[in-house]
Write a structure and sequence with these properties.
The complex is a heterodimer. Chain A is an alpha/beta fold. Chain A has helices spanning 41-49, 71-74, 94-105, 111-125, 138-150, 168-185, 196-202, 220-225, 227-232, 239-247, 257-276; strands spanning 2-10, 16-25, 30-34, 56-61, 64-65, 78-81, 156-160, 188-192, 205-210, 213-219. Chain A is 43% helix and 21% strand. Chain A has a 6-stranded mixed sheet with strand order 6-7-8-3-9-10, with helices on both faces. A 4-stranded antiparallel sheet of chain A has the order 2-1-4-5, covered by helices on one side. In chain A, α3 packs across α4 and α5 (138-150) packs parallel to α6. Chain B folds into 2 domains: 14-132 and 226-248, no CATH class; 139-216, no CATH class. In chain B, a hairpin with a 2-residue loop joins β1 (90-92) and β2 (95-96). The chains are: A alpha/beta, B mainly alpha. The interface between A and B is medium-sized, with 29 and 25 residues.
Chain lengths: 277, 250
């Protein structure tokens, strides 16, 4: 579905920000792009949506080169949630905001159909519709931005640090909604995220970047268990994985609190048996 | 991130080493001289001075970018002037010799005046500009800070606007296809998010300044000194020459 072929990009006055990056993302994948600041993660997602054009290589979505068609024409199929919701919100009420996105990319549909879709999304996200977006909290504004993107039912959702600055509950609200879209409607999700706990909880696959290069591509748990890779990419793995790695044998699969408790109990049971023997 | 037009370019050129006040003086003198003289050759000379300043400062690329940007506005103004000024002898259709001269003066003046204003920011740190205004010219810190903050906000606003346009393009607003007036009409509704983010940023900057003892700062608070050197003396003499030239070649 999304194919990056030897993609490189550099801003005119600096060295390459992304160097020879290749990957393939299938429909329904939930992929996280990981790496330290300046690793090239945001540049990579901007390249995927065609917001910037590769200096070398190409990005294909459904076989179409993103560099040869306008970004605005892709908005029907590709939704992009930015880190700062205030850059997306431009209307006076939440209803107007959602309708604005709908009318922009689904303008060929009837007014009634768009209004009905808007009300459906408002209900789904728990908004009355008359709220003023700029008087809402940061987390709520991020939800408004997400609602207006999901309203158009994109096939691909790109998230650039969607949970930055949000409290735990808001973070869960937003990520749960995205996971539901991913599982129920097979929406492909590509997410840049610095919160490794969120990545572990929600993503299936991770692309690890450092210095603009792609270091690794694989299942999230395997990636986090590669201590050498984590060090190379300057990433601190989630606490549970860090702990399970330290505890070693018998704790390999203990990457959630429940799994850890079970592993500890199992070890205790073995210990008890050894004592009995 | 892309570097913007108003961003400081580090360097150790003669222009960089000049006292910031001298650079401001040079900028003001070039502007005044451009309006004192209507002589096209003199104005063209000032344009060369602008370009030379950029080259000597080691920011030739940036100077050229500024020049190209101004040239677009200049061409628009030139066409407007030659079509609107009807005094003088007709040369071609409704274009008169007076119209051509006036248009040439206006556009050269525009470029001559705008270039040093942009260049002074490329070769002077905003903090040095503020501190020198306070230390050397005894401008109250609050006013100098306001000026420097306003300058600092320009690229930030431009970056914010670019970010907003990018976000809207990703939502399907056809900024990437529209041109001219249509694009302008599409930008207008985006003034709301820009205004709101600007007010928020201003509030945050004010709060940050307050907690760092903004009101306690005096003229002697800065540790860096801004002495006048032989280079500054040379620049002042050059300013006097420019003004004399402007008066002589009215």
């Amino acid at each position: 579905m999304i194919q990056a072929e030897h993609v490189s990009f550099s801003y005119s006055d600096q060295g390459p920000t992304v160097q020879d990056v290749s990957f393939h993302i299938e429909k329904g994948d939930f992929v996280a792009i990981l790496g330290a600041n300046g690793a090239g993660k945001t540049t990579t997602v901007r390249l995927i949506d065609g917001l910037i054009r590769p200096t070398q290589g190409k990005v294909l979505i459904h076989g179409a080169d993103t560099a040869t068609s306008p970004v605005s024409e892709r908005a029907r199929r590709v939704g992009f949630l930015f880190q700062n919701p205030d850059r997306q919100i431009c209307k006076n009420t939440v209803r107007e905001e959602i309708l604005f996105g709908l009318k922009t990319v689904r303008g060929d549909e009837s007014e009634e159909a768009l209004n009905a879709r808007c009300e459906e999304v408002l209900k789904d996200f728990g908004f009355s519709g008359d709220e003023e977006p700029f008087s809402l909290s940061r987390g709520q504004r991020q939800r408004v931005a997400l609602a207006s993107i999901l309203a158009v039912e994109p096939e691909v959702l790109i998230l650039d640090e969607p949970t930055t600055g949000l409290d735990y509950l808001e973070c869960c609200h937003i990520m749960d909604r995205i996971r539901r879209m991913n599982r129920e409607q097979q929406v492909t999700v590509v997410m840049v995220c610095h919160d490794m706990e969120v990545v572990l909880d929600y993503a299936q696959r991770a692309l690890v970047m450092a210095g603009g290069k792609l270091l690794a591509d694989g299942p999230v748990r395997e990636i986090f268990r590669d201590a050498e890779l984590m060090e190379k990419a300057s990433i601190l793995p989630p606490q549970m994985i860090g702990l399970s790695l330290r505890l070693g044998e018998g704790f390999e699969q203990a990457d959630t609190p429940d799994a850890m408790a079970e592993a500890v109990l199992a070890r205790r049971g073995e210990g008890g048996k050894r004592h009995e023997n | 991130m892309k570097t913007n037009l108003f961003q400081y370019v580090p360097g150790n050129s003669v222009i960089h080493r000049m006292n910031p006040v001298t650079k401001i003086l040079l900028t003001i003198v070039i502007c005044v001289a451009a309006f004192l003289s209507g002589n096209l050759f003199y104005l063209a000379g000032l344009l060369v001075v602008d370009l030379l300043i950029g080259i000597i400062a080691g920011v030739a690329g940036k100077t050229w970018t500024i020049f190209k940007g101004l040239l677009k506005i200049a061409i628009f103004l030139f066409v407007l002037q030659i079509l609107l000024v009807r005094n003088g002898t007709p040369v071609l259709w409704i274009i008169t010799d007076e119209g051509l001269l006036t248009a040439a003066r206006v556009v050269i003046r525009l470029v001559v005046v705008c270039m040093p204003l942009a260049l002074v920011l490329a070769v002077t740190r905003v903090t040095d500009l503020t501190n020198s205004l306070v230390q050397v010219l005894h401008v109250p810190y609050q006013y100098a800070f306001t000026l420097s903050t306003a300058i600092r906000f320009v690229p930030q606003f431009l970056e914010e606007m670019a970010g907003i346009m990018e976000a809207q393009t990703a939502r399907g607003v056809a900024f990437d296809k529209a041109r001219g007036l249509k694009k302008f009409s599409m930008i207008l509704p985006l003034c709301a998010p820009l205004l709101i983010s600007s007010v928020r940023r201003t509030d945050q900057t004010a709060a940050a300044a307050e907690v760092r003892g903004f009101r306690l700062r005096t003229r002697t608070s800065g540790y860096k000194k801004y002495p006048f050197t032989a280079v500054d003396l040379g620049a002042v003499l050059f300013c006097a020459l420019l003004l004399a030239g402007a008066i002589l070649l009215k």
